[in-house]
C-alpha cells in the first residue's frame, strides 16, 4: 500500500510543486491525497483537479488540514513542504507535532535559529524529517560518494564545486508576475541568503555528501551584482575541510548564459572525480597514471549505492525528476523502517543554515577566515 | 479526472512494463487500475501490489479482463499492451473490439500481415491506437522535426541514423533466465526481425519523423554475427527518401561497448542538425556559414512543439521516462479530443513492419535496391 | 644533417602546400631547399621567399629541377609532390627515375592504371615512395591500431567510418577563383572520384589501417547531389572485411555544416573503440562490462607506437600539422634506414585507387556487391 | 629572409626548449642558428646536431655568444631565453644590452625586483622584449578577447579561471633525474612561487588578456599540499577586477588526474564565454536568451584577430605548438615593425611577478584582501 501524502504549497505558478508531486508518486510508494496548494482557494482547487486529489481533501490552511486528516482512518502519513522558505518552520513544526512525517524543500528554515528550533521539534517528535537536496539523489553522485569512502582516490586533498545560473542577471524580481524571482529576492521570504541560500547550499551539501568530510572554515566573497537587489546573487568561497583538504565553492545566479550548471571535482592523492549536472549519468575518474574512466549510470559494474537507485538499463537517461524521486523513495523506506536510504535530514539542514549565515556575515564584515563549527 | 488504464504484460522481469506504468502516470492524466501483468498469477499479483492496483482488478487473461471491466461503471478506458511482439495483435484487436483505446509497445505486430489486419480493426473501432516510439517524445526531437518542417535547413539532402547497442554481443539468449534476450532472439515471439525489429525500427521511425519524408527505397545488409543466433543482430542499410535525399541507417546489438546510442544527423542545403540519445536535452545545428548553435531543452527560445512537452526549466535534465510519458500524455489528449499531440499510430506501425520485412527479405536474397512503397 | 627536399606544387593559393612545408621541417629532419611551387614563375618565386628557398633553386618545371639538382653536390634527396592529382604520376615517376625519394599527397595517381604503372616504377627505382594519408600520423590512431592488433577488442566484427564535410554544399567550383573547389570538381584533374577520391580514400585507408584487415567487398551508393556537378559529392558504402567483419563507410562534401568530421568506430567481440578527428588527442574504449576508458595522447600508459610519435606531455594538444609531420618523420626514418615508421606506401596507394574505381563503377551500374580484390 | 635566432637553455631534458625551436621556425619567419643549449658542452652539441645549428655557433656561455655573434655580419638578431627562472634576468638583460631582441619563457624573472630592473633595461635598450604566455596565442582566445572588447557580452561581471594539473601529486622533485620537477620545486631556481609562478601566472595573464581588465585586489589561499615540498603546489584566489567584476582563480599541480586543464569563463551582463585548453579550437558563447553558439577555429565568420592567426581550414585542429608559434610570429612582426601582433611584453611580466609575490605574501600572512596595484 502506498503511503498517503499531503502537500503544503506547490500550486499553480510553482516550479518545484509539480516536481515534488511527480517525484513522490514515481515509484508507486507514495500517493498525494490531500493538500493546501495555495493561499488562493481557486488555485488550490485547480491543482487538486490536475493531480487527482479529492475536493474534500483540499484545505484552506495547514492547521485545518492536519486536524482533519488526523481524524480520518485513511488520513495522510506524511507532509511535503513546498512553500517559500519563511513558512518552512511553521508548517514543518506543526506537521511533526501532529504526528506526521515531514519532507521539506531546502533550505530547512528561514534562518539558523529556526533550524535549531526545528531540530528540537524533530527530536521530540519521533517522526522522520527529510530535506530534498535533490542532487544527492543522482546515482552517479552516490557512486562518487562510495568511491571516495572506499578510498579509491586516496585521501581527499582538493574540492572544486561550482553552481552557476544566469537567470537572475536582470532584476526579474521587479516583475511581480515572476514568482520564482520575487520571493527569492525578498529577505522576508528567503532569509539572509539569496543565491547562497538558494543554490549555494546545494553546492555546499553535495561537497560534504561526496567527500564525507565537513567544511571547517571558510573565507567568503558574497556579493550583490545586480543594482538594487536586496540579497546576494554571486558568491565565491574558499573552503577548508576537516582532514586538511582545501576547496573552492562558486555559486552564482548572474553568470549570464549559465543554465543550471552544478559541477564538482574531488581530487585525492591518487586521482580525481568529476560529476556535472548537465550530463548527470556519467562520472569521470582521472588517475595519476592510467586511462581515465567514464562510468555510466545503469551499468552492472557500479557499486551498490548507485545500482540501488537506478531504474533503467545503461544508455537510458534518467534526470532531475528521477533523482528527486529517489529522495522520496528513500524517505518512504525510512518511514517504513527499511535501511540503506540516504535522506538528507535536519543535521544537514543545520549545516546548510550555518553555512549561509556564516558566509554572509563573514563577507559583510570582511572577516577573512571564519569557523563553521559549533552550531551546525 | 484521470483516465483509467489496464496493462497486459509488463510484470516482474520486464524492463519496459515498469517504464509504461511510470510514464502513463507521470503527468497525472492516467491511472493504472487493472491488469494482466503476467501469465503467472503470483507474479501478476506481485506487480499489482507494487503498483497500487486493487486485487480484484488483476485478471487471469485479457479476455476476462475486458469483459469484467466493461461491466463496471468505473471500468478501464484504455489498455497498454506490453507483451512480447507475438501477442500484440491478439491483445490489441481484442481491446479495440471491446471498445477500449489501445497504446502498444512497438513494433505494432509480429509481422506485416498482422499489422495490415490490425489497421482494419483500428479503422473499424473508432478508437485511438498509439505506438510508443519513445524517441519521438523527446523535446529536442520534436524541435528537430519543427526545424526541418520550417525549412531552416533548406531541402533535406542526407540522413545518417545510427542505433548501436552491444548487449547481445554474446549469446545471452541461451541463458533462459534472461527474458529480455530470450524472447527477442526467438522468431516465434519476435517475428522475422531481431535487431532490425527491436531497434532498427526506432531508427527508421525517427528518421521519417524528423525529416517528414518517407523512405522510398533501401539496400540492406542484415546479418547475424553471433554464431547460432536465429535472428539478425547487425543491420546496415542504404536509404533513399522521397524528394531525393539519401541516407544510411545503422542498427546493431553486437557493437560491443555501445549502450543505447541512437544518433541522427539530418543535412539540408543550408545546414545540418544532430541529436543523440545519450545527451538528449541538446540539439546541435551546424551551418554552412556561421557559428554552430546548441539548443537546450527547456529554453524559452524553442519552438512550440518542444516547449509543449518540457516539464522543467532549462538545465534540469529530463530523460527516457519523461519522453515516454509525453507519448502517453499525447495519447490522453487524443482520447480526450485535444489537438496537437504527436502519437505514432497504426500507419507508422505499418511503415515499421514494411521496413523490417523488406529489409530482411532483400538482404537474404541479395536483391540490391528494393522499394518500400505500396503496403506501409 | 637534415635531408634536403624539393617540392612540386604547393605555391600561393594552395591549402596543402604550406602544410607539407611545415610538416616536413617541424622535427628538424628535413629542409625544403628547392622547388617548382607554381606554373607561374612569379608565384613560385613568392613561395620561395616566404619559405627561405634560395632564388637559384626555384625552377621552371620539375624536369629541369631534377636535372639541375642531380648535378649539385648538395642536391635534393627527396621530392614532395603537392600538385593536383592528374600530375602525380608524371612528377612522381620522373623523380623516382632521377634517383629521388618521393613523398606524395594522396591519392597516388589520377586512376588505377597509373597507380599500377607507378608501382612498377617504384619497385624498379629502389627508392622510397610514401603517401601522406595524414590521419594515420595521429598518435591515437596508432594507439587504436595497436589495440586492435594486440587483440584487446577480440575479433573485429564491425567498423563504422564517417568523413563528412559541408564545404561543397554549393557549386563553389563555378567560382574560378576557388582553386580548391575547381580542380577537385574537374574529372581531368581529379580522376573519376570527386568526394570519394578526395576524402573517401582517407576513410577507407584509416579503416584498413586501424583494423589491419582489408576490405574484400563493397556495395556503394556514390552520388552527385549538387546539380551540374561533374563528380560525386556524397558516398555511402557497405563494406565486408576479410575475416568477416562488416562495415559502413560514409563520405560527403555536402553535409552542410560539417567541418572535417572524420570519425571511426571499430567493434570487436569484447569492446569497441572510437576516434574522432575533431578531438584527436583522445581515444575512447567501451567495454562489454566495465567502465569506458578514455586514453589521452602524451600519457605514459600508452603503447610504444603512440608514444613514439608524440612531441608534448599530455594535456598539450597536437593537431593536423603534427600528424602530417609524423608521416614526414617516418619517411625520413625510412630513407635513413631506421625501422619502426609507418609510412603509407604504393600498396596503399593501389588500394585507394581500386576502392575509388570499383565503388564509382559499381554504383553507376547498380551492381550491388562487388569485389575489391585482385588489383590493389 | 628569416630572422636569425639564438637560444639559451632548452637542450636535452628540457620540455620547453624543443617547443620554442619548433614554434620559432614553424612559419618560416625565424631560423635558429646559434645557441648555448646546456651548461654541459656535450649536451649542447647534441641539441645543435638535432636542430641543424652549425657547430661553430654553439657557445660555452651566453656572454661569449653575444660577443661572437655581434662580430658576425650574419649574427643573430634575437635571443630566445629558455632557462630556469633564476637565469632569466641575467640572460635577458645581457642580450638586450648587446643589442638583441629578447623573447623569454615566462615568468619574466625570479622575482618582482628583478622584473622591475629588467623593465628599465628594456626601456633603455630600444629593443623588443616578449614573453611566451602561450595561451594568448590560441585563435579562440584572441576571438574571446575581441568579443569582450566589442561589448558583445555587456559589462564583465564575473571571471572563473582554473588551471589544474596533477603531475606534482607526489614528490617527484626528490627524483633528481626529473629535471622538470626538481628545478620547479627549488626556490632558488623558481622564486617564491611554485605552482602559482609556474601556471598560476598563466591563469592570471589569460584572465587579464581576455577581459582587458586588470585585477585590482585579491584574497589568496596559497598552499603546499605534498609534505616536505618547499614551494606551493595548490592555489585558490578570489579576485576583484577594475570596473567591479569578481573572479576566482584556481591553480593546482596536485589535482591528481588533471592533465593541463586551463579553462576560463567570462560572464557579462548579456552572456558568457568559455574556452578550455583541452579543446582549444572551439569557443562557446552562452546567452541570456537564445541558443548557445559554438565558434570553430578556422571559420570565415570569426573576427580579424582569430583569422589572422589560424593556419588551417576549420576542422583541422591546431594545437600548442601552433599557439606558441603565433607568439613567435607576432614577435617577428614586432621586430620588423609590422602592426597588429599581440606579444606579451615586460608590462605583463611585471603584472605576473606582482601577482605571485602579493598572493604568496598575503596568504602566508593571512592578510585577507590585498591590493595588486602600484607596482605591476
TrEMBL record, chains A, B, C, D:
Keyword field contains rRNA-binding: no
Alphabetical UniProt keywords: Oxidoreductase
Location of the GFO/IDH/MocA-like oxidoreductase domain: 141-273
GO molecular function: nucleotide binding; oxidoreductase activity
Enzyme class at the top of the EC tree: oxidoreductase
EC annotation from Swiss-Prot or TrEMBL: 1.1.1.-
Pfam families per the UniProt record, alphabetical: GFO_IDH_MocA, GFO_IDH_MocA_C3
Keyword Zinc: no
Protein name listed in UniProt: NAD-dependent oxidoreductase
Gene source species: Caulobacter vibrioides (strain NA1000 / CB15N)
